[in-house]
Amino acid sequence: MISYILWDVNPEIFTIPEIMGIGPLPIRWYGLLFAAGFLIGQQIMIHVFKKENKPLEDIDSLTLYMVISTVLGARFGHYLFYQPEVLFKNPLEVIIPPYAGLASHGAIIGIITGLYLYSRSRKDKGQTFFWVADRIVIVVALAGAFIRFGNLMNSEIVGRPTDLPWGFIFMKNLEFAQIPRHAAQLYESLSCFVLFWILLALWNKYKAATPRGLLVGIFFIWIFTLRFFYEFLKENQEAFEANYLLNMGQILSIPAVLLGVYFVARARRQPKITAS
């Protein structure tokens, strides 16, 4: 007996009707989950700042840097890695809504840039780049879980065909609605959620004693190693990837994993961790 999961979820929660010539405005699960990642992440960072005696007035600035750098990085990365011809013809596409194309590798580059800009004026407050980065990856992992679940709600970034009993038939995605497929978005969402709890537990155990770069390194190794292998279960996002032995997501994940290994090795050479 063949079994599968029929996924027929409406990506829109509700629609705000037209008001004074503006609208109608659909409210989608993806946007709600994307925003929830920042809102919940901000509360987690408030907890971190309180526990490590950092100034709470910096939270709003950190949140603003994260929002801007994440969105711009994800948009720029999408066009740079997947549609460079659009980027070079019309660079304003990066900042003009709707934000239909977002690349996670670009988001990471954007976040790193944003954290560098944020931390360089706050070193005297003990908020060095690695101090901030080691803590921000906790909430980035949680946000990643929300965003990938948002992809599931959108029936996008679907997996390859499968005869496994948990295969999804994505009814809203007319291009891939015929047969059961891997719910690759759900695999990645659950992986990010597990990583969130691992990083949170490590920080909660060691707090200020955590070696610089350790949590960042674990984040990079976990996320991008799994991303490399999950890509074998996913349909290519762009047609040109069919000509490559590895797709773009896998190619970009390799240096990210190596960078993570470097960060962990660097952290291990620091004084031994002592629990607080």
TrEMBL record:
Listed transmembrane segments: 27-49, 61-82, 94-117, 129-149, 184-202, 214-233, 245-265
Binding site for a 1,2-diacyl-sn-glycero-3-phospho-(1'-sn-glycerol): R148
Annotated metabolic or biological route of this protein: Protein modification; lipoprotein biosynthesis (diacylglyceryl transfer)
Subcellular location: Cell membrane
Class of the enzyme per the UniProt entry, highest EC level: transferase
Keywords tagged on the record: Cell membrane, Lipoprotein, Membrane, Transferase, Transmembrane, Transmembrane helix
InterPro entries attached to this UniProt entry: Lgt
Gene Ontology CC terms, in alphabetical order: plasma membrane
One GO MF term attached to the UniProt entry: phosphatidylglycerol-prolipoprotein diacylglyceryl transferase activity
Keyword Lipoprotein found: yes
GO process terms (BP): lipoprotein biosynthetic process
Pfam families on file: LGT
Topological category with respect to the lipid bilayer: Multi-pass membrane protein
EC number(s) on file: 2.5.1.145
Chief location: membrane
Highest taxon listed in the record's lineage: Bacteria
Homology family: Belongs to the Lgt family.
Record function comment: Catalyzes the transfer of the diacylglyceryl group from phosphatidylglycerol to the sulfhydryl group of the N-terminal cysteine of a prolipoprotein, the first step in the formation of mature lipoproteins.
Protein name in the entry: Phosphatidylglycerol--prolipoprotein diacylglyceryl transferase
Organism: Dyadobacter jejuensis
Gene it is expressed from: lgt
